[in-house]
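Customer ticket, subject: "Can you confirm the structure for TRAP transporter large permease protein?"

Message body: Hello, I'm evaluating your service for our small team and ran a test protein. I'd like someone to confirm that this is what the system normally returns, since I don't have a reference to compare against.
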Amino acid sequence: MDGTLIGLVAFGAVLFLLALRVPIAFALAAIATIGTFVIFAFRTGAFAPERAIRPTTSLVFSNSFDLIHSYDLSMIPLFVALGHIAYRADITTKIYHAARVWLAKVPGGVAMASVVGCGGFSAITGSSIACASTMGRICTPEMLSVGYDKRLATASVAAGGTLGSLIPPSVLFIIYGIFTETSISALFLAGILPGLVSLLGFLLVIFIWVKRDPDAAPAYTGTITMADRGRAALESWPAVLLFVIIVGGIYGGIFTATEAAAVCVSAAVLIGLVQRKLTLRDIWESLRETCIQTTSIFLIAAGAKIFVAFIALTGVAPDIVEAVTAAELSPILLMGAIALIYLALGMFLDPIGIMVLTLPLMIPLIETYGFDLIWFGVVVIKLLEIGLITPPVGLNVFVIAGVVGRDVPIDRIFAGIARFLSVDVLVLILIMSVPALSLLIPYSM
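Agent reply: Thanks for trying us out. I re-ran your input and got the following:
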């Protein structure tokens, strides 16, 4: 049977199963296993299932085994654990409180502090969903209680939560680096400037929103002294220290990304115990939640690895590359088409699912056109970041809706998200147009 046809049918089958709400790990693994069996069974022309059993099981088990024993993959549970421990030790929330004090007198200050807090949380945890969930519980009720517009109060946290995908460390960057065999340390550094530009863009949206509609964010009437600001800034030193260890250690060549994660976990536990903000029960609960989240990610990664091996077996990727080359698409048209595909998929699928499903086809195209894989990684993560707040299945929006309950209908949250989405698109165009924005830091190492 024709391998390309089997590969295309397999993609359609995976999308069909995902539409039926089948977990993506099982959908990828099942379709890849069946497709591999079919290819080997028909290899000699006639259907011979006895000849397909051994090579199929070999492909499935060897690829999943190799992935789970990957050194780079070990940093995922470390960074997930770091996020849980830092939250329970009150390290991440101090960033928000410091920003809250410093921005109190600025129009929309609480909303801006929420975005800054999300950026700081992202610089430690690496998870957008965790960022939106945690900061949503902290920031959104406060904004609603002081009279903020419900759209601004919810949309600012939902949008700010997406920064966890781009600001290092990022679980999505780790998975991208593993599947494309690029440096995860370089990817982390490449996300810094685009992440900061995105954060500044969100702050600008809030500033303009409140300037045009002062009633959206009541002015702060209390008194803030420089002593208050200094105290708040000093209290956030543990978060700054962890970020310096991650970024400074990697940039300076002191640590690999995995080593930086291990050092930060140890430092967070030590800080929490010394400050008496962390108990043994907190550590146990953090490790338990880490095991649950890591297992889910590992299952998806294993299923994706099997699917990637299957796609390589079908030969569908070279055929697509040949077709695109024959069409003589310009680099701009190619990147535009890729962006539209990711934005469309982002309306319905979760970020990890989109990435592991599309990378087997996208990477050969990118390499054919001579694009930098680190720069393309930043573009992909930014596209996935946009998908987190794009209707109808913006995961961060649903997370915030779950936090606020019936107080704010989900359509109101999406109404507020529209302004942040416009800035996200502008930042995406900037990243695609100016590769140096992503490559400046990693290539200066």
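A couple of notes from the result: Residues 104 and 221 are 9 Å apart (CA to CA). The first helix runs from residue 3 to 19. Feel free to reply with more questions.
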